[in-house]
Amino acid sequence: MNFTAERHQRALALMLELGYLCAFSGATRDQAIALLTAHKAAHPDARGHLMGDALVSLCCDGNPEQAVAVVRQAKFDYTDRAEDPVTVAFWAFILMQARYNSEAEQVIEYLLDHADDPGALQLAQSVREEMLSPS
To answer: Is the pTM of this model over 0.85?
Structure first.
């Protein structure tokens, strides 16, 4: 199956979203990994699975430092225009969860200045509000 064809793009996006949801639940680690692995196999050039792997470390394993390390080791560059804006917004979320608020704010500012994806912008605003809310 040619997953680069436009008609298969939605299936890939849904696979990735389901992987993220499984990771967020924290109770479905195996399902998250299965979905993220399938996404990577179907679309190896995409980087969305990278944030999924980080979310597994963060949410399922309770290890925010490992989540950040996963992304840093992959040399993720949020300023690369080829990166998906939602993936970049998740990077801000992961940084915030690991208490790298200053770096998370830089990522958010970049998104607000350069992205036009409504979902990415909404997630970035939510992360910002969470950082600004009193703990």
So the answer is: yes
Contact (Cβ atoms closer than 8 angstroms) between residue 38 and residue 15: yes
DSSP designation for 50: H
**pLDDT classification of 111: cutoffs 50, 70, 90:** very high
In terms of Cα–Cα distance, which of 110, 68, 66, 116 is closest to 88? 110
What would the 3-class secondary structure string for 50-108 be? HHHHHHHHHHHCCCHHHHHHHHHHCCCCCCCCCCCHHHHHHHHHHHHHCCCHHHHHHHH
19-61 pLDDT, tens digit each: 888 888 877 889 999 999 988 888 888 888 899 999 999 999 9
Return the residue matching tokens 């980087």: 47
Cα Rg of the chain (Å, integer)? 14
Using the 8-state DSSP alphabet, how is residue 83 labeled?
S
> Residue 51: which of 68, 65, 35, 34 has the closest Cα?
68
